[in-house]
Amino acid sequence: MMSFDFSVLSSEHLLDAPIISVRRDLVTMPTGEANREIVEHFGAIAVVCEKDGAIALEKQYRHSVGAHLWELPAGLLDKPGETALECAQRELKEEVGLAAGSWALITDLVTSPGFCDEAVRIFHATDVSKTLRPEAEDEEADLTWEWVPLDTARRMVLDGEICNSIAIAGIMCCGGKERSVDTPFSLRPVALADRKRALQAGGRP
User: Fold this and answer.
1) Which domain of life, per UniProt (predicted)?
2) What is the dihedral of CA 64, 157, 42, 27, to 10 degrees?
3) pLDDT digits over 79-100, tens only?
């Protein structure tokens, strides 16, 4: 059975902000056409950093939900030319002051495909050592973290203590089949980065 060929008839830019952009696409549908609002995102990484059977878990304030959440070290892919692995290494240092000598890919995921193109690459970092953590700013200045046994983290997921979807995926998938960090990140979004480059070059967003 052949699937329907969805195509974009027109696109309208609605909002530009530092870390997101919003557009409205008019898309062909099996029964006609419909508007779809899309949040454009840089994409992100997260790290399951494991040492002696325990993982680094952060507690960080998230203003969108008005709460401190348990999370993995993570960050935006918002630096031009930076690979996902380089971003993961940088964020691990910046957020928890750690470095890792061994890296593997756990999984890639899309967080909210109904309206957002954000994709996240989750790494497994081992052979861990301490490194100098830069001075933190904004929410990260309030960030705390601790080593939590992986089995305990999994129980925290099942008990509802961990509700961040990226953390849940990383914790529950850790220990399964892993892939090379060189695996192509085909889901990595590009629309927002392309839009920012066009604006910097003086072109149309």
Assistant:
1) Bacteria
2) -90
3) 999 999 999 999 999 999 999 9
113-147 confidence digits (pLDDT tens): 999 999 999 999 999 999 988 888 888 889 999 99
Look at the block and give the residue holding tokens 């309030």.
Answer: 142
Q: Quick one: tokens of 118? A: 């954000």
Residues 140, 146, 161, 178: which is the catalytic one?
140
Domain positions in the chain are: 8-40+191-200, 44-173
Phi and psi torsions of 120, nearest 5° = -130, 130
Confidence of residue 163 (pLDDT cuts 50, 70, 90): very high
140 is an active site residue:
yes
For the chain, how many helices (H) and strands (E)?
Answer: 4, 10
For 166, phi then psi, to 5°, come to: -70, -40
**At the topology level of CATH, where does 44-173 sit?**
Nucleoside Triphosphate Pyrophosphohydrolase (3.90.79)
